[in-house]
Each structure stands twice: as C-alpha cells, then as structure tokens.
Amino acid sequence: MASQLWHRIQESMGYTDEEMKIMMADPQRRKALEAGPLLVRRKIVGEVIHAKNCAAHQVGAKYVIRGNGVLRASDCKDNMCISLLAALESACYTILDRLAEGDDPKGKFTRYIHCPDTGLNCGGFGEAILKITVEG
Question: Which end of the chain is more exposed for a tag (fewer CB within 10 A), N or C?
Fold first, then answer.
C-alpha cells in the first residue's frame, strides 16, 4: 500500500507511529484499512419496508451509513431509534469484511433486519423491518 495512504490514515485516525506499526502488523485490520478508498465510496442503505406501532420509523424512510460504518446524518432525514441502529451492526460488519477481502458487495448484497422490539402482541411496543443494500 502506498505510504501516502498510510500517512492519511494515520492523520485522520490520530494513530501514533507505534499504533500504526500495530495496525500494519495485523493482517485483518491491514486489509480493512487498505480497502479504505473503496469503503468510503460505498453506502450502506437501509430502507424501512415495514413498521407497525413504531414511534420512530415510517415505511419508506431511508438511512445511509458509509462503508466504513459511519452514519451519514446529513443523508438521514428521519429519526432512527437505538434498537434498529444496533440491529444494523452485524450487516455493517459483513459488508466491511467483504470489502476488505476484495469482494465488493455493491448491487449484490441484500439483507433484512428486524428491530429487537418484539411488537405489541409479544410484549413489546412496536416493530420495524429494514432492507439493507450497498450502493455507491
């Protein structure tokens, strides 16, 4: 990897020289960092396809997370509850892993996640389902 890119990573993340040595010595983290230029071009898009008795989500609402896992608040016009945000974590890590391995999931990745709230009939309050895709 070009030293210029490593330098940019070090500056943006605030790593010391010693911390950079640790990062570069770990093959898994090194792959993830080397995938950085592709990561920042990809968007993880979650669209609410079902919501019932949900205080935060409406069908059609979209949420955008950068491929590096950063929520793009400027792209999210609607509120997101912490339960649905937490449910997104495993899909985001799957996408990150694929990108780090050189398998770009753009246009090939679709997952559905259900918020942890079980809904009114099962002791909860409401429920929502999010369709996850990769764009960009």
Answer: N
Q: Across the chain, where does the E strand assignment appear?
A: 43-52, 62-66, 110-114, 127-135
Nearest CA-CA partner of 115 in 66, 50, 60: 50
Average pLDDT for runs of 10 along the chain of length 136:
79 92 89 83 94 93 85 81 90 89 93 92 93 94
Domain boundaries, the chain: 3-34, 42-135
pTM: 0.83
Based on the number of CB atoms within 10 Å of its own CB, is 62 exposed (0-12), middle (13-18) or buried (19 or more)? middle
Alpha carbon distance 83, 51 (integer Å): 13
6 alpha carbon, distance to own chain's centre: 22
| Phi, psi at 58, each rounded to 5° | -120, 145
